[in-house]
Write a structure and sequence with these properties.
Pfam families: HOOK (PF05622). This protein is mainly α. It has three helices and no strands.
């Protein structure tokens, strides 16, 4: 009996619940009821929320695209900045090379002046050697004459005094020749030393001239690269505009 009573109570509650549910549904569908008005207001608010969500999604997508574009542009700007920094370093390097070129040009000019000075000294040494050779020839001639005079003096006593004079002259000439010979030997050594120094200077001059030419060519190549880089940067700037 109790079970039947409970079952009956359950059925009654279920029927009552269905009736209430139907009534609530009818009230919600009826815009004239309080529940219907609230339900309609909630639906309108829900639609507004949906529209707002759609708008936010669209804005989010727009911001995402802008972020991607800005990120890409930032990378390009960083690359451009690094390129400009590289060009700046190259420009500084070019300036240093130009300074070295100027210094080397001054060295070359100094070496040319030194070479000309050595050439003049060599010419002076050549003249000195000719003078020594001439004195040696004169000494030989006087010696031969002295021998002849000595032979003649055996035959003619009156010539003895003159022979003595000639002997003194010969001795003086021999002393002079000795001095000049020593000077000539010293001149030969000096000439050899100057020739070696001239050769070294000429070699250094040729090396500097070659370095100068190489650095000029490098400078022209770097300048061309720098101008091309500036041209590319200018074209890139026009594309952004």
């Amino acid at each position: 009996m109790q079970v039947a009573s409970l079952q009956e109570e359950k059925n009654h509650l279920e029927n009552h619940s269905e009736a209430i549910t139907d009534k609530v549904a009818d009230d919600l569908d009826d815009p004239n009821t309080t529940s219907g008005k609230k339900y309609l207001a909630l639906q309108q608010q829900l639609e507004q929320y949906k529209d707002e969500v759609y708008r936010l999604d669209a804005a989010k997508e727009d911001y995402r695209l802008k972020y991607e574009f800005s990120s890409k542009e930032l990378v390009e700007l960083k690359d451009k900045s690094e390129s400009l920094a590289t060009l700046a370093d190259e420009a500084k390097s070019l300036k240093d090379e130009v300074d070295v070129l100027r210094q080397n040009e001054e060295k070359v000019k100094k070496y040319e002046t030194t070479i000309e000075s050595y050439k003049r000294k060599l010419e002076d040494m050549t003249d000195l050697r000719r003078t020594v050779k001439m004195l040696e020839e004169k000494n030989t001639s006087y010696m031969e004459k002295s021998v002849e005079w000595e032979e003649e003096s055996k035959k003619t006593s009156t010539l003895r005094s003159q022979i003595e004079v000639y002997k003194r002259q010969v001795q003086e000439l021999q002393s002079k020749v000795t001095v000049e010979t020593k000077r000539g030997d010293k001149s030969d050594f000096e000439i050899k030393r100057l020739q070696e120094k001239l050769s070294a200077v000429q070699t250094e001059k040729d090396r500097l001239a070659q370095d100068l030419q190489n650095m000029k060519e490098n400078h022209e190549e770097m300048e061309l690269v720098r101008l091309q880089g500036m041209s590319l940067d200018g074209n890139a700037g026009n594309l952004y505009l």
